[in-house]
Amino acid sequence: MPIPPIQVVDLHKYFGTLEVLKGIDFQVNHSEVVCVIGPSGSGKSTLLRCINRLEEPTAGKIYIEGEDFTDPDADVDALRTKIGMVFQRFNLFPHLTVLANLTIAQRRVLKRSSEEAQDVAVKMLERVGLTEKVDEFPIRLSGGQQQRVAIARALCMNPDLMLFDEPTSALDPELVGEVLDVMRKLAEEGMTMMVVTHEMGFARQVGDRVTFIDGGVVVEENTPEEILMNPQQERTRKFLEAVQHY
Q1: How far is Cα 222 from Cα 169, in angstroms, rounded to an integer?
Q2: Which residue of 148, 182, 235, 242 has the fewest C-beta atoms within 10 A of its own C-beta?
Q3: Alpha carbon distance 168, 196 (integer Å)
């Protein structure tokens, strides 16, 4: 069996005395799109941030392509280059142009030359349909365009897998589709993706598996069809009933 890109074993996370993750076991396989759903405060984003070591796990193991990411001797920076991360709030540098946002990490982390970094940046902007915005500053872009730039920035690092933390929740409704279209194309190209989302239509159409998390535990996971149309757990059913647009 091939080694899964992401494997989480008995993951716990405390903030003070509050236990947010309560023994999560979770796996994402190669070229799989796993959509993580659940109510606010359920631990979804914390799980994602632990996988990228933006939050330090309290206990448990996280393996990235078979390497123990939680090992004290792990080369966190090297392992993190394999992981593209897209945040809810874009996290672009406002004082830098789109091109500069896409080249800075390439030059500093991957040690690419300015010319090579620019070539890669332009190619990634083409993938997200924004080559004409190369010299713009983020403030002059719509929210959807900013998020597409953020996706392009992550792709510039040539990641093996992508993590999306509610990438459309900060967008006006009419801008959501342009971001989901880019994510859909990535999935079609075989990118391994873990997506924390409230977009049930995307989960149903693009996801290979849907995982429902509540109260810091995995309540249920299955194919999108089974989870969204035939949930087995009462907590899952109640959540989906409350999400009217699924």
Answers
A1: 24
A2: 242
A3: 10
Q: Token digits for 103?
A: 């080249």
Sign of CA dihedral 73, 150, 125, 64: positive
Share of the chain above pLDDT 90, in %: 87
Q: Hey, what amino acid is at 40?
A: S
The identity of residue 245, as a single letter, is: H
Q: Cα separation of 48 and 147, whole Å?
A: 18
What DSSP assignment string belongs to 15-36?
ETTEEEEEEEEEEE-TT-EEEE
For β-strands 18-28 and 6-15, DSSP reports them as antiparallel
For residue 246, the model assigns a pLDDT of 44
pLDDT for the residue numbered 244: 61
Rounded Cα distance, 93 and 196, in Å = 23
Question: What are the structure tokens assigned to 177, written together?
Answer: 């589709």
The helix or strand, by DSSP H or E, that contains position 91, with its residue range, turns out to be none
Reply yes or no on whether the pLDDT at 129 is more than 60: yes
Classify residue 91 as left (phi > 0), alpha (psi -120 to 50) or beta: left
pLDDT digits (tens, 9 = 90+) for 157-203: 999 999 999 999 888 888 899 999 999 999 999 999 999 999 999 99
